[in-house]
Amino acid sequence: MNLPNSKIVNKGIELAIGYDFVQTEDLTWNVNFNIASNDNMVESLSGEYNAGSINGQGLTGAFSQNLKEGYPLFSWYLREFQGFDSSGSPLYGGDGGPSFVGKSALPTVTGGLSTSLNYKRWNLNAYFNGAFGHYLYNATRNAFFTAGSFASSRNVLAETLTSGESTNASAAPSTRFLEKGDFIRLQNLSVSYNMPLSGEGLFKSMVFSLTGQNLFVITDYSGLDPEVSSRTSNGLPTLGIDYGAFPNPRTITFGINAKF
After folding, report:
1. What is the per-residue pLDDT across 53-75, written as a single tens digit (0 to 9) for each?
2. Count of the separate structural domains present in the chain
3. Three-state secondary structure string covering 108-122
4. How many CB atoms lie within 10 A of CB 44?
5. Domain housing 221
6. Domain presence at residue 1
7. pLDDT category, 199, cuts 50, 70, 90?
8. Helix (H, G, I), strand (E, B) or coil at 5
């Protein structure tokens, strides 16, 4: 979809630093760190556009974001959830309709840290990355794990039984399903060993390696992965919606690099 007369501005700063802590014949160790901060703003846009479609039973035509001049991209536009009343129906602030809640799916800070340690024939490399200051919409929870799922005999989370929500309550998109997306991930870790060879045999060199990808994530996000974003179907750009998204895989690889 074309957005007429639109202007989006990004302003930010990035810092990168590296240091060699040890440099000897047998041992070397270095660390590199980078951090970036970004401020995003829609400075010019004719009209406003509802975006971030939310799918699921009873959620036809629902949305969670709004594109409007004077707000960042991927700004959450939701009802302010304030709990349940005595009958188990959700309570919303203001006039009960959606509004900008002052949160965006865009991280305000991103960063990465890599380190390399070499000791004689051993080598270790690690890379961490992270993002902070953004919010994710757990559309999977909105669509499948509310008390209304009981009415259609669907499975729900155990916590739904004690949430205080009525089984006939509507589950409109709201800040109830909005969560902090901050995370730190060990993206890559590899260990290798260069086996000593005389050079008189079949192989001139042989290196054994063990590599792990996405080994762990530190986050308070309740979904499967804070770094996935599902596509929506309304033709507008969207970010930060988790609707049945498959998490990043964890892989462990063993390798042998031999030279003849």
Report:
1. 998 877 888 999 999 999 999 99
2. 1
3. CEEEEEEEEEEECCE
4. 14
5. 7-259
6. no
7. low
8. coil
